[in-house]
Amino acid sequence: MKKILLIVSMGLFGMAVHAQTTVEPEFIGECMVLKPDQSTVLLEKHMTQTRSAMNAGMVITGFGSVKSKLQIEGCCSATKLKAGDDIQFIVRAVDNNTDPMAIIKIFEFDSSKKFRRAELASVNTFGTTKTNKLHYLNFTGKKYGQSSYLITLKDRPPGEYGITVTNPNSLDEKSTIIATFSIL
């Protein structure tokens, strides 16, 4: 009887291991690209800077707007993906019980030779404030492993992009870490 139970449990364990061949990222907030051959590549991570600037009209006449932007160094990501391919990511979170749309954001950067920037908010002279001005990509998400999500991009226009993961259980978010990639 013990031998039969041992054989059955080994068989079930073997099927469970074989069912999921790729691993989860090591740390919360890390993201991996899932390639068609089921191998993964860890996306590069960046610390962000927040930059606020007035436009010329505000400086000269006092009328205009002040914009607040996230900024990271460098023109482009080392991870290049093709727009025609299915693009999937494995994103590690605190757990995978929350709707991924609530905690994972994939957004576009404006790229220059030295920086990548994304506008967070703007305030004009008349007091109008516009927040959450990031251009987001649509995606679908499924639970993956113990505490990750399998994210599949619906939109794949060419550009520079960033992924952020927030912790819904924490009121004390540390600095913003962004994982980056490019779509060609």
UniProtKB/TrEMBL annotation:
Keywords carried by this UniProt record: Signal
Signal peptide stretch: 1-19
Name the record gives this protein: Uncharacterized protein
